[in-house]
Amino acid sequence: MDRLKSAALKITSLEIQGATNIAIYAVKEFIAFAQRHKDESNESLWKDLLTAEQVFARSRSTEPAMRNGLLFILGKIKHDHQQGIEVNLAKMVEIYGNEYISILKASKSQIAKYGARLIPKNSSEPFVVQTHCHSSIVEAILVEAKKQGRQFKVISTETRPFYQGRITAKKLIDHGIEVIQVVDSAMRWAARNLGTDLIIIGADAVTSEGTVLNKIGSRLLALVAHEEHIPLYVATPLLKYNPGTAFGNFEKIEMRDTVEIYKDWDEKPEQLKILNPAFETVNRLYISGVITEAGIFPSGQVHSNFQQVYPFLQNAYQSIEHEELEFNI
Ligand code: RUB
Hints:
Strand content: 5-15%
Distance between the termini: 18 Å
Bound molecules: ribulose-1,5-diphosphate
Structural class: alpha/beta
Radius of gyration: 21 Å
Number of strands: 10
Number of domains: 2
């Protein structure tokens, strides 16, 4: 369990960042945990898997793609058990874990293809795409568009306090894409003065009402998009959907340690209160569409598309919720 806890700490500390990377990393560590398990009995491993799931779920809130991954594995195993299929538990964690990772990776490639089409092939004016933070899915769209020969440049925000915008800038420049970086508070100025044509952001979570949760500053960018009449798209696999929101559960917004903000400020007054919310909500009214593996549509349709594409996950969530004592997830 100690190795699993240090893996979870890498998520908490942002050594592993971005919802998709976090989900893939957590699932791989979950598989490794099952394989390291000394006790041969399925009962004891099952109990420890439930604890391991909780360790990851608490490593960062606002990460349904990670939680859905663990639910996918546990739900499939439970389903097999109910069908009377007796299995080697560690092996099944590996099989279902790898299946989830494959689904997530395939979604990313599909989204990259759909999203790239939003950037015109032969634009007479230089096309400008603006983004915020670092989203590996947005990055995949832009890299795909570049591969297809589409001409554009990118405006990226620094994204304080962790400067994930630098990851975006570095990765895009490595692919030969022109990037202009601005401080977060210049996002409106940049949209207006640098001629932003399209805004694409990632997502950490999507609710049943079509609200998107993403890095703090995303709502601000959405308001800029609204004011400047710029289309704003959210690039997200359906697996970021939190099925619990359809039953009245809230997706929590992670509040991070305030030291991340003032660590290099020696003269911070003792009495000063600092807050460090990691994410914020973007109302569906500000979203032109979500770019998903099932196509591009309004964010309010994520719930029904999730049910259609991943009925197993929707059912697993419901059955597990009703059997909390037996399967406390
Ligand atoms: C990252 C962030 C990203 C989403 C989507 O925040 O908000 O936009 O996680 O990422 P943090 P992806 O750096 O705090 O994790 O598209 O890679 O899933």
